Amino acid sequence: MKSNDQLALLHCWKNTARREQLPPPGDWIIWLFLGGRGAGKTRAGAEWIRAQVKAGARRIALVAPTYADGREVMVEGMSGLKNIGYIAERPRYEISRRRLVWPNGAMAYIFSAEDPDGLRGQQFDAAWADEFCAWSYPQATLSNLRFGLRLGEFPRLVMTSTPKPTSALRGLLQEPGIAITKASTFKNAGFLSSVFIQSIKATYGGTRLGRQELEGEVLDDMVGALWTRKMIADAFEKNHPPLDKTIIAIDPPVTSGEHADRCGIMVVGRAGQVRDAKAYVLHDGSVQGLSPERWARHAVALSERWEADYILVETNQGGEMVNSVFKAISADVILRPVYAAKSKCARAVPIATFYEQGRVKHIGGFPALEDELCTLGIDGVMGSKSPDRADALVWAVHDLLLTSRNIPSVRAL
Questions:
Q1: 287-288 and 245-251 strand pairing
Q2: What is the pLDDT of residue 314?
Q3: What is the mean pLDDT of residues 8-36?
Q4: DSSP secondary structure of 349-369
Q5: Are the C-beta atoms of residues 283 and 306 closer than 8 Å to each other?
Q6: How many angstroms separate the CA atoms of 289 and 260, rounded?
Q7: Could you read off the pLDDT of 213-245 as tens digits, one per residue?
Q8: 3-state secondary structure of 163
Q9: How much is the pLDDT for 21?
Q10: For residue 256, what pLDDT is reported?
């Protein structure tokens, strides 16, 4: 049995933590801890929350990519809140309410980045956001979270994540007053399997993926990507000239329902003569989790709002079904069906060339679209998520600058 002094030493985080795992000095509002896999980010976040509870915090937000991630990592993981500190001071987890309750009355609620509106109307005096770069809706979720940090004398937020070159992270890094610390996986090697360390060094040492996932570096452009951040930055314009054509391009989802794939919907216009015409990206109307009828109605509404000439729809996933959906909602619109005979990336190659030539312009910023474009490579998609917005854009630009005069259109009625 350990003595009281031994227990105190064991549970004193300041005595066991590495320097980068401890809160930075100063009056920061957000502490962003970027680190490689297994770098000790979870323990740092959990210990900070533990310290806030001891200091008097009573309402705490725990935000994860999904509800399951929140419970399995932030709450019940080996370094989670239920497994650190004195046993008598540890919180209990109430499954039905997705909340932790400490013996002193403090409460922490789990939220999912898949449901940004779940944070609306909530208020907290401390928050921990985990794996920010894996969030489905980073801007919306973070905004709602920050609006809710309004209790106590000095509400603060800790964010822990393995970095990825997302526009949301880049924007956050540019904000003033944010404290940033970084850590490598190898700094935490004493608490990781030696076999794991040897294996990942041999496999990923010196690679771009290793620099991101192990060293915790923020890398802007992926090797082999068709689009670079500079290409997209060069495409930015505030206004567009008079357009001679505007279309709605749709990349329909394969599935439907609450957890369906995203339906990529882009509004793109064209101006100029045939040989030097330019395409202008006007609006990202992509939606997720809607039934075919609902995303079709959404597309029709966008068509009316933007006075589109027609709606371009990829028909690989059931051409008759797509046409039937628009007929069912009595949509008096012109549909132009397109069929993908090539892969997404093969279709994207000439469109990336148009960007390099300055023939595609973005009227405003489209962070989610930009992230997807930068995952398209010559050899395939460099990411786990389907680039639905990017695919819809590729169809639109291809149609406007390459083939629009040769493809027949049909009415949905």
A1: unpaired
A2: 84
A3: 83
A4: HHHHHHHHTT-EEEES--HHH
A5: yes
A6: 5
A7: 676 666 666 667 888 888 888 899 989 999 999
A8: coil
A9: 87
A10: 63
Alpha-carbon distance of 33 to 173, in angstroms, equals 11
Residues 377, 224 contacting (CB under 8 angstroms) = yes
Kindly give, in sequence order, each residue whose CB lies less than 8 Å from that of residue 298, ignoring residues fewer than 6 positions away: 265, 285, 287, 290
Strand partners, 401: none
Edge-to-edge strands, sheet with 92-94: 92-94, 99-101, 107-112, 59-64, 126-130, 156-161, 30-35, 178-183
Output the pTM of the full model: 0.58
Using CA atoms, how far residue 183 sits from 47, 163, 173, 212, in Å, is 16, 11, 16, 11
The vertex-18 CA angle with 15 and 19, nearest 5°, equals 100
* DSSP-H helix ranges across 221-342: 229-234, 292-305, 319-328
Token match 């919306």: residue?
A: 140
With H, G, I as helix, E, B as strand and everything else as coil, classify residue 296: helix
- Inter-residue long-range contacts of 15-24, CB under 8 Å, 24+ positions, other chains counted: 17/43, 17/44, 17/47, 18/183, 18/187, 18/188, 20/44, 20/181, 20/182, 20/183, 20/187, 21/47, 21/183, 23/48, 23/158, 23/179, 24/179, 24/181
| Number of neighbouring beta carbons within 10 Å of residue 318 | 13
pLDDT of residue 326: 82
How many residues comprise the chain?
Answer: 413
Structural domains in the chain, CATH included, are 4-213 (3.40.50.300), 229-411 (3.30.420.240)
What does the pLDDT average to over 108-131?
96
